[in-house]
Amino acid sequence: MRNFDKFAPRLRNWSVMLTRKLSGFSSADYRALLRQLLSHGFRDVRLSELESDKPHLYLRHDIDLCLEKAAAMAELEAEIGVSSSYFVLISTGLYNPASLASRRLLRRIIEHGHEIGLHFDATQTLHDEDLQSAAAAECDILADICGRSIHTISFHRPAPSLLNLTGNFAGRRHTYEPAFFSEIAYISDSNGGWHHGHPLDHPAIAEGRAVQLLTHPIWWIGSGAREAVPLIRDFADRRAAELHDDIAGTVTAYAKWRDDKGLPCGRHS
Asked: What pLDDT, on the 0 to 100 scale, is given for residue 224?
């Protein structure tokens, strides 16, 4: 027994190290992370329900690049039995939330029991435009697309002036209010990494305190963990190929030129 007591701390450390080594960024890793958080007694809640001194888990997803991966993550979470909030950009050149394909994807996310919020990019407003008025207008656009009201806002790459901003923004709760940000555990996978430590290492997990967990579907939905830059380069190449398809669907001469060259369809290559 004395020998076990002597080596028990070391064994626990080895166990933690092994867990971290096996924990990457993939669909399986995200599923495992959620199950471990639930096994610690955490319960998924909406932003308005979050209480700092309880084991509440607010799952937030900012959709910066890809609605398809967001819809896949929404399905994964529904299989586990948790609900989360997906924040959609309106002022972006990276996807069109109003397209038929995007509306179908957003409907899938909603049908899985998740919330849709606005991911507001303040840099996309005119210099003389009021930020809150601009955000309110984008909420109305997103509500028309989704067919339901928008109650929450997250900021895309927020300026320091937007962090810990008290009170509502555009008449809605936002994810950087002190009660949801600085006064609780805030954990993010920005740029494809846990830059402030693995979520399971955060003291709030052991202490049963509220957590806002921000993850971006682009890093997680796939078969295995990859470094951020190669993943994004592959994503950009696929999007470029799809853009050629879209142009060919509009410009007949370009479509004929591609056919004559025997160029493959980007969506199926």
From this structure: 65
